Amino acid sequence: MEDIRRGMIPAHIYNDKEIFEREKATVFSRSWLFVAHESEVPQAGDYVVRRVLEDSFIISRDSKGGIRAMFNMCLHRGMQVCRAEMGNASNFRCPYHGWSYRNDGRIIGLPFHEEAYGGEEGFKKKGQTLLPAPNLDSYNGMIFINMDPNAESLSDYLGDFKFYLDYYTKQSESGLEVRGPQRWRVKANWKIGAENFAGDMYHTPQTHTSVVEIGLFREPKAEKRKDGATYWAGPGGGTTYKLPDGTFDERMQYVGYTAEMTDRAKDVWSDEQQRVIGADGFMISAASVFPNLSFVHNWPKVEDGDDVLPFISIRLWQPISENETEVLSFFAVDRSAPEEFKKKSYKAYLMCFGSTGMFEQDDVENWVSLTNTSAGSMARRLLLNSRMGLLEDGTRVSEELTADEFHGPGTAQVGYNEANQRKLLEMWADYLEKPALEVGPTSVGTDNPDGIRPMTPTNGSCDHAAGTHSKDATVNGAVLA
């Protein structure tokens, strides 16, 4: 761990079964994990099924408009209750023995309750529900769960990164709408993608040279990436492009936003958020939030000519094993955007990312090779050098940008460096050193005081018209309402 904290990375951490088991017990049991966006379940009864490692959760909007996150296992014999990946249902019926549950998780049907159990005396049906996620909360419509019932609030966890998260997830009062996810598996370790999106501008001139050479982007050279800034704040960080001189409005137009969309962004972004673009000249690009959530914002050409169209993608690096990852890639766009903009933005997304995107193909080739090479005995002898941007004594090659040069929170610097990759792995090392989460079993159908509790909101508030929950809401126990 000390090697990692000084930027020297044991190569085998990218393909090590013992380390992966430790990650499951510490990293993914204690972090806030993105599972869905509220726009995926806009109507009462809408649901999607999402997985966190081996655990399947039903994310539903119940009949009263609340968002639920329920473990997808029947309380009787453990059958998966919901078999479809998405849909609309007032209730879920287990196909094994017919137990049925409302879309808020409450038991509504137990065949032969009186004959088989002696009614309530044998099995107390009242108040029993599907097992809720230990912690559930949302920010700008993005729904997160945490497996630790005593976790810090989502707002505290995201911290200063919320400043940057707004660029991706709140470009107007209407919030986002998302499509997807596209989903595929790659034979690569989950950490590699998270590190790449967090701050790897250095690979662009090498890995993605062809994408620039064919004229997909306005900038003539991939090396222009070094003129952007990398930033780190709270549990995440990302990269930016340096834009040509101009005002906030002119720079938004340069990357393809209409005047109306720019005006709507000014209504929801703070003065400081606008200054990062308008005064400092930096436009957000890729970013990662620990442990496995990433974003990308880019503006390729989608038709002949010089016009570009921006797109946003949200993605999860969902671990399958130490050497396989399921990628979930969502297209995201401002709900208030013109329909023609949405259509072209989606086309831009498909060209670049998603299962057939040009950037995607370039990246995965590297990540699979890295993972394979990390599996052998020689990898255990090698410490990879991840100290780009540092001199031998730890001094930065480039000074941090001042508050007048970069108006966002956290730290930022210009030029090639691996500061963000180091920060991400430092957090990873900190979590690996935490004790494994230990939670006792939950009994159902009895008077056990530790049994499943009714799912009720605690101090959370929601604006369903906008599809977003209050930023400071802390909801414990599986419902946002």
From TrEMBL:
Record-linked InterPro entries: ARHD_Rieske_2Fe_2S, RHO_NdoB-like_C, Rieske_2Fe-2S, Rieske_2Fe-2S_sf, Ring_hydroxy_dOase_asu_C_dom, Rng_hydr_dOase-A
Keyword Nucleus appears in the UniProt entry: no
SUPFAM superfamilies in UniProt: Bet v1-like, ISP domain
Organism superkingdom: Bacteria
Short name of one Pfam family: Rieske
Domain Rieske positions: 32-145
Gene Ontology MF terms in the entry: 2 iron, 2 sulfur cluster binding; dioxygenase activity; iron ion binding; monooxygenase activity; oxidoreductase activity, acting on paired donors, with incorporation or reduction of molecular oxygen
Keywords: 2Fe-2S, Aromatic hydrocarbons catabolism, Dioxygenase, Iron, Iron-sulfur, Metal-binding, NAD, Oxidoreductase
Family under the similarity heading: Belongs to the bacterial ring-hydroxylating dioxygenase alpha subunit family.
Name of the featured protein: Phthalate 3,4-dioxygenase alpha subunit
Organism: Rhodococcus opacus M213
